[in-house]
């Protein structure tokens, strides 16, 4: 006699174990320090929304923001642009960015909004398409 509930229970337990192991691996392998990516960032004029966070690898506040938002860069929602790269530094200067971290939301190559700081609520608001400081 088959026991469908037992098979369901076993499959559920196996799924939970795999999910827990996967999440644990993500936590273990999440970067503890900012990577100095010297790659220049290109603003895509055709892309509807593009989010770029200008940072310095030596900035402690940038380190904190990087650890919090690293996985959004893995999924492609956010790109990190090191101001140690000359092209990125020039792009930041053209936008009037003098402090980091600064998150810039581009829409079809044009700046929609930018936020300088570490407040997660404001960063999340910009990443959701809003403007920092709005309620």
TrEMBL record:
<protein>
    <submittedName>
        <fullName>Thioredoxin</fullName>
    </submittedName>
</protein>
<keyword id="KW-0472">Membrane</keyword>
<dbReference type="InterPro" id="IPR013766">
    <property type="entry name" value="Thioredoxin_domain"/>
</dbReference>
<feature type="domain" description="Thioredoxin">
    <location>
        <begin position="43"/>
        <end position="126"/>
    </location>
</feature>
<dbReference type="Pfam" id="PF00085">
    <property type="entry name" value="Thioredoxin"/>
</dbReference>
<keyword id="KW-1133">Transmembrane helix</keyword>
<dbReference type="InterPro" id="IPR036249">
    <property type="entry name" value="Thioredoxin-like_sf"/>
</dbReference>
<keyword id="KW-0812">Transmembrane</keyword>
<feature type="transmembrane region" description="Helical">
    <location>
        <begin position="7"/>
        <end position="30"/>
    </location>
</feature>
